[in-house]
Design a protein that fits this description.
Elements: E1 4-8, H1 17-29, E2 36-42, E3 54-58, H2 65-77, H3 87-93, E4 98-101, H4 109-112, E5 116-119, H5 134-150, E6 153-156, H6 159-169, E7 176-178, H7 185-188, H8 194-204, E8 210-214, H9 223-236, E9 242-246, H10 253-262, E10 269-271, H11 280-286, E11 289-292, H12 301-308, E12 313-316, H13 321-325, E13 330-332, H14 337-349, H15 351-366, H16 370-381
Parallel strand pairs: 1-2, 1-4, 2-3, 4-5, 5-6, 6-7, 8-9, 8-11, 9-10, 11-12, 12-13
Helix pairs in contact: 1-16, 9-14, 12-15
Organism: Thiothrix lacustris
Protein name: Glycosyltransferase family 1 protein
Domain Glycosyltransferase subfamily 4-like N-terminal: 16-180
Length: 382
């Protein structure tokens, strides 16, 4: 009898790269016939309805304030009881043999005492503690230790993060598998429709030349330093170029907009907010480059998206990004706005370099094989 594998996809569409990471994992496993895969999703999430897999939709009970307190208390005391789960949830999860959790979450697998595999994406709170409240840091510590201790296996996307898990959580390295996730499969075979370019440009009122940065307004995404670098470009060069930002307008967003206004860059920097997913490839392809000034990133999904779509990349030299891009991007120090500005201008002006980097990026990402990716995940599952 086939094993039933539950894939937990409870993650918001506006939640950044993990949303795409989940998509890639489902893409990879959907073709496997060795097990029965059951997707667990929010009641209004329709993205996996056409995959030919069973999709069980529900409203997770872990989101209520009271249940969050119960979960925190259980993590603190080392308990793994499903006290807060409703009967419909218990029934929905009852026949699952193994859970796959692409997000670093404790719901529901930690409390069901069933085997599970989870992905730990990063431990940035250890490097930038000031970007998290004391409570957030404590919760992350409890969560990561509980999950790592109880999981059958842990997946991460770079050797850098594997070392962090071993150093900060004390995990056995044999329990940790490094499996880099490719971009969603549709991007690798994406064919843009020529008639859509003008429509997308009009829809978002895009300038002729722009640098693109899609990211949530979290502290580590380093928007402020990027704005400072762009201010240098505007004031010290003759480049007629704009900066287009996208992502949810939360967290550091007010500080970002205040800085743009303070520097008088409202006409050169535009924040689009959330972008319809079908429009994103066109925003990439019309951009002069993707810039990725992040302070901390295990693996950057937007970089893989840019590579897949043939767009040059200019990015930070931090954490696992050099490991990710190899020779296919121009890198800079994300704490040095002058260096960032210099590298962006270099890529704007050096067309042969931009073309070469785009070609290398495309070749690099095309070396990813969803079948090979699936094989690696299946080896962990088995």
């Amino acid at each position: 009898m086939k094993k039933k594998i539950g894939i937990l996809t409870f993650y918001p569409m506006h939640g950044g790269g993990i949303f795409q990471y989940i998509q890639s994992m489902v893409d990879a496993l959907a073709a496997d016939k060795g097990s029965t895969y059951i997707i667990f999703a929010d009641e209004n999430d329709n993205r996996f309805d056409g995959y030919g897999l069973e999709v069980r939709k529900l409203v997770p009970s872990n989101r209520s304030g009271m249940n969050q307190v119960i979960i925190f208390s259980q993590l603190l005391l080392g308990l793994r009881q499903p006290f807060f789960l409703r009967k419909d949830e218990l029934d929905a999860y009852a026949d699952i043999d193994l859970f796959m959790s692409p997000a670093t979450s404790v719901y529901p697998h930690l409390f069901l005492k069933k085997p599970f595999v989870f992905t730990l994406h990063d431990m940035q709170e250890k490097y930038y503690p000031h970007a998290f409240t004391r409570t957030e840091r404590f919760k992350r510590e409890l969560r990561n230790r509980a999950l790592t201790k109880s999981a059958k296996a842990v997946i991460c996307e770079s050797n850098y993060v594997k070392q962090d898990i071993m150093n900060f959580v004390g995990a056995d390295g044999k329990k940790i598998s490094i499996i880099q996730s490719p971009p969603p499969d549709f991007l690798l075979r994406y064919e843009a429709k020529p008639e859509n370019f003008a429509a997308v440009r009009l829809k978002y009122n895009l300038p002729e030349r722009y640098v693109f940065y899609p990211a949530q307004c979290w502290f580590h995404k380093n928007h402020i330093k990027l704005v400072d670098a762009f201010n240098t470009i505007v004031n010290e060069t003759d480049e007629d170029v704009s900066l287009i930002l996208s992502g949810s307008q939360q967290d550091n967003y007010p500080k970002l907009m205040a800085r743009i206004k303070e520097l008088g860059l409202e006409n050169r920097i535009k924040h689009l907010g959330y972008i319809d997913y079908e429009d994103i490839p066109y925003l990439y392809k019309m951009a002069q480059m993707l810039v990725m000034p992040t302070l901390f990133e295990s693996v950057s999904i937007p970089i893989y998206e840019a590579f897949a779509l043939g767009v040059p990349v200019c990015c930070s030299n931090v954490v696992a990004l050099p490991e990710q891009v190899g020779d296919a991007a121009l890198i800079f120090n994300p704490n040095d706005s002058a260096d960032m500005a210099e590298k962006i201008v270099t890529l704007l002006r050096d067309k042969p370099l931009a073309t070469a980097l785009a070609a290398r990026g495309r070749q690099r990402v095309r070396s990813f094989d969803h079948k090979e990716y699936a094989t690696k995940i299946l080896s962990v599952i088995n």
